[in-house]
Structure formats: C-alpha cells, structure tokens
C-alpha cells in the first residue's frame, strides 16, 4: 500500500497561500474542534445554534469583521478572512453564515456607509461579540429583485433633523432572533434621478418600539442557524439612524458582494470536509472482505471530488489575491459564487453515496453539507441570478429585464 496524501497535499494547495494566513486558519480550526465540531450534528438536528456563546469566543479570536480596519476589528487580509470562512464552513454552513452576516453584512454596512458616531457605537461591540447584528434586505416578495421591496421609511416633519418612521417586513434574516441591531433597507419618499423612491439604510436597535422578530422554524436546510422574520410597525428613528453614505441599491448590493466573497471560500471547506470524511470512511468500511476504498468506482468518486475541490479552492485563492489587490469586481465574485457553491454541493452529494446507509445519518457530514448548500445556492443571489450576471459581463446584454 502506497503512502496516502490528503486532497490538499496531492496538489500542494497550501503553497498558494501565505504561511501567516495558513497559521491563522489552523488556530480557527483548532478552536472550532474544541468548541463546536462535536456538537454541530446535534445543533443541526435540534434546529438551533448558541449564537451568543459562540460569538463571544469568535470575537475573542478576532474573527468578527476581521477584514475591516479599526474600531476593534483585526484588519486582516481578505485571503486570511476567506481561509477562516473555509474552516467555519468545514464545520457547518450555518456557522459561517452567522459570522458572515455579522462581519460582512451588518458590520461592513456600518463600516462602509455609516457615520462616525454609528461606527463608534456599534463596531467595537459587534467585533467583540458583545452585540449581535443582522441585515434586513430580503422580503417575502422581494428576494432576487430587491428594488421591489415594500418596506417604507418616511420623514415625520421637515428638515434634515426630522425623525424617520419605518414600516415593513423583512424575511429570512439570519441572526435576527438574537440580534441587538438590524441594518434595514427601505424605500424613502426622496426621488432618485429617475423619479423613483430612493433606497436608504438604517441602523435599527432591535429593542426600538415597533420592532418585533419571529423565529422561523421547520427548516430542512441550514438548521444550525437562527433565522427570523423582522416586522417594523411604525418604528420611529432619529435622523442619525440613517446610513449617510448609502444611497440607492448600490449600498445593499455592495454589502452582498462583500459577503459573497466569504461564501466563495467557505464552501470549499464544506467540500473538503465531505471529501476527507468519505476517504476516512472508505478506508475502514469493508465489503466483500476488503475496504471499499479498494474498489475502482469508489476511487473514481474520490478522484473526481478531489479534482473538483482543487479547482474551486484555486478559484477562491485567485479571487482572494484580486480582493487583496483592490481590483476584484462584482462579476468576478458572481462567477466564484456560482461555480464554487454548485461544485461543492455536487461533491457533497456524490460523496454521501460512498457512505451508503450511514451517509444519511447525523454521524457523518456529507449529507448535512449537501442539504446546507441547497440554501447557500439560493441566498445572497440565486445560482440563476449569478449566471445572468456573468452572462451580462460576457455579452454586454442585460437578460434580467
């Protein structure tokens, strides 16, 4: 029997990353192994996640908003953040979603578009895990078409100091049931250059009168994630609650592109974990008096999965370099999200079969990753929407309309 190699060793994947970035990822992997990995199957079955407990530990590690500068944030490279997302999603997509929503949506929105007062008030607490944030964009009837949102923000009075009053409902909001603050996107009565209502963002503490959150239960996918519906009923906010630098859809879409970058890296962790689990199982499970790893069809599945995993990891590494260089574009992120999620989902599905009947239990991760990735394929831009974004970039023709 020849010496075995891990999927990363076979192609020398680690050589494309800096040693400091890899060392940081190892620290994350070790912490997750000590605090989360053994319990994640139970969290998934129970449909829960101890967000507040985990956020404090993740904050102590410096993972929350780690790629942002100042205000208690670690200020790491984008690639280091991406590798952390890989380790988080190797445990569960719900865990990576929790961190991504906190850092790349709620915190990034305040960091990129907020006032200095908003940054000083919220970012240190969110970075430390002492406060939880969420991002209110999606609605029941406005998912892929956020411009169709019905949530409204109206001035009560005249002048720049007049209060805002918000009404509407946001749906599928990760972290919402345990959040201290929600970034709400709403249509205002300010006309844009085409005469349409201008979309603005607001920093809304969840203890504000008129804010209520209902937890969403009975999910089949992404069960180790806390998700909610946020209702805003006459929520009165001071003028200072508005994000001053965000005007129009560019604000929320910029935040989504930031979060999608984490997904590009994260799903490679789910693929790696499914692959290593299948390899380990195939080496010990015997049929016909030999390990199933010795059968040609099993080796074909493992070889194909390793090829696909290597490709999406290299895609993520390349996009990490582009982001660190400041040259990455939303279309490139769309290509990465479209390709990597679909490929990782197929890897997890194919490798589930290697485990036979045991593969449908919570004892092994491939089925859980496969089910979770069905959600990741849909959120923060569906697979089809990203296909059209890439198609538009290639042809110059907008197929959305």
Question: Can you count the helices?
Answer: 12
Query: What percentage of the residues does DSSP assign to strands (E)?
Result: 15-25%
CATH homology-level superfamily of the largest domain: Butyryl-CoA Dehydrogenase, subunit A, domain 3
CATH T-level fold name of the largest domain = Butyryl-CoA Dehydrogenase, subunit A, domain 3
Radius of gyration: 22 Å
What is the level-2 CATH architecture name of the largest domain?
A: Up-down Bundle
How would a textbook summarize the main sheet?
7 strands, mixed
- What's the average pLDDT? 96
Number of folding domains?
3
The unreliable regions are none
Helix percent reads: 40-55%
Distance between the termini: 58 Å
Pairing-aware structural class of the strands and helices? alpha+beta
Number of strands: 11
SSE pattern, N- to C-terminal:
HHHHEEHHHEEEEEEEHEEHHHH
Name of the top-level CATH class of the largest domain = Mainly Alpha
Q: What overall form do the CA principal axes indicate?
A: elongated
Family: Belongs to the acyl-CoA dehydrogenase family.
Domain Acyl-CoA dehydrogenase/oxidase C-terminal: 247-394
Domain Acyl-CoA oxidase/dehydrogenase middle: 134-235
Catalytic activity: glutaryl-CoA + oxidized [electron-transfer flavoprotein] + 2 H(+) = (2E)-butenoyl-CoA + reduced [electron-transfer flavoprotein] + CO2
